[in-house]
Specification:
379 residues, Aspartate Aminotransferase, domain 2, Aspartate Aminotransferase, domain 1, alpha/beta, seven-stranded mixed β-sheet, single chain, three-stranded antiparallel β-sheet, 2 domains
Length: 379
């Protein structure tokens, strides 16, 4: 037998993480009740009590999204896994897909759709804006898409995509509507069924204030009909909802071992949403954001996105001329234990991204952040 090598046998200390206030684009700080739920003892992934919990998670997710879709589940993976699941189950090779690209995550949707064989048409608008109906119609007439992909809450820019009138266009062109709700679920107005959204995905670590690790996904009847008629199976076995759906459906057929404790945490996060009520929760996020926007103006800072399409969950703040955006963020982290993030892509170095999401959407966090930013900027 070979000798055991001790090269990587290191001694480590007990884990002691700094008390960060996470006011970037995610993750947000988990609610204490969520952290407590995560520490519950494990049961098996087919245990009767866990199956009962699965039913509760699905029902609460339907409430949060305002949908009756039977296939409404937490994908075992982060929000990007739910994003890939949505694309993989909606797109077949050769399908025409029209995607609104007004930020980093529109770009990611383009990348994923191309990997699944879609013929992608980019519908580009400046980062920080939304796509209007006339632009959507013009592109639909040109490419006749089978799927339209839009980002409802663009995490890289803080812009909200209006959905009024989009379903009627999709009906006219026999097109599925796929929606990114990663930074809006649980914090911004969302009506999946009333808006006629066919597929949507999200993450747990934003407005739900649960650690990352699960990816909420909902698929409507039009998606399921196409899924049944596919000429070939979904090429991603792990994310094929015709298989995973049997585990989350009535048959409870084994597919993979679900992350037990992460589902405990998500259940508690969704309980908090239901206890507060969606309308009150949306209102709280809006009030907190408006307090922040007013405070930014008081210290001479401005927002990148115009107010009528500005997310209340995430704000992009313009970096003043001559200011090193990275140095400000590092100082806030090192001296105040506050995390904010810089811009991505076209907005790199031009904005800070500030999230006031879920448990963190509170007036005292606004007061603290504004005071800290003012102090750092004065230097």
């Amino acid at each position: 037998m070979p000798h055991v090598k001790d090269t990587h046998r290191i001694e480590t200390r007990d884990l002691d993480m700094p008390p960060r206030l996470l006011l970037g684009p995610g993750p947000s700080n988990a609610h204490p009740r969520v952290l407590r739920a995560l520490s519950n003892r494990q049961v098996g992934h087919l245990d009767p009590r866990f199956i009962e919990l699965m039913n509760e998670v699905q029902s609460l997710l339907r409430y949060a999204w305002q949908t009756d879709n039977p296939v409404t589940i937490p994908v075992s993976g982060t929000g990007s896994a739910a994003m890939e699941a949505a694309v993989a189950n909606c797109v077949e090779p050769g399908d025409s897909m029209l995607i609104g690209v007004n930020g980093y995550f529109g770009e990611r949707m383009v990348d994923m759709a191309g990997r699944y064989g879609a013929v992608v048409t980019r519908m580009e608008t400046p980062w920080g804006t939304s796509v209007d109906l006339d632009t959507i119609r013009r592109h639909m007439e040109a490419c006749r898409p089978r799927v339209l992909g839009l980002v409802h809450a663009e995490t890289s820019t803080g812009a909200r995509q209006p959905l009024e009138g989009v379903r009627a266009l999709c009906d006219e062109f026999d097109c599925l509507l796929l929606l990114d709700t990663v930074t809006s679920l649980g914090g911004v107005e969302l009506f999946i069924d009333d808006w006629g959204v066919d597929a949507a995905y999200s993450g747990t670590q934003k407005c739900l204030s649960c650690p990352p690790g699960l990816g909420p996904l909902t698929l409507g009847p039009r998606v399921l009909e196409r899924l049944e008629k596919r000429s070939k199976p979904v090429p991603n076995w792990y994310l094929d909802m015709s298989l995973v759906g049997k585990y989350w459906g009535s048959s409870r057929t084994y597919h993979h071992t679900a992350p037990i404790n992460m589902n405990y945490g998500l259940r508690e996060a969704l309980r908090l949403v239901a206890e507060e009520g969606l309308e009150e929760r949306w209102k709280r996020h809006r009030n907190t954001a408006e307090r922040f926007w007013a405070g930014l103006a008081d210290i001479g800072l401005s927002c990148h996105v115009r107010q009528d399409i500005r997310l209340s969950s995430l704000t992009t703040v313009r970096v003043p001329d001559g200011v090193d955006s990275g140095a400000v963020a590092r100082t806030l982290l090192n001296e105040y234990n506050i995390e904010i993030a810089g811009g991505l892509g076209q907005l790199a170095g031009k904005v800070w991204r500030v999230g006031l999401m879920g448990f963190n959407s509170r007036a005292e966090n606004v007061t603290l952040l504004l005071a800290a930013m003012e102090d750092v900027l004065k230097r």
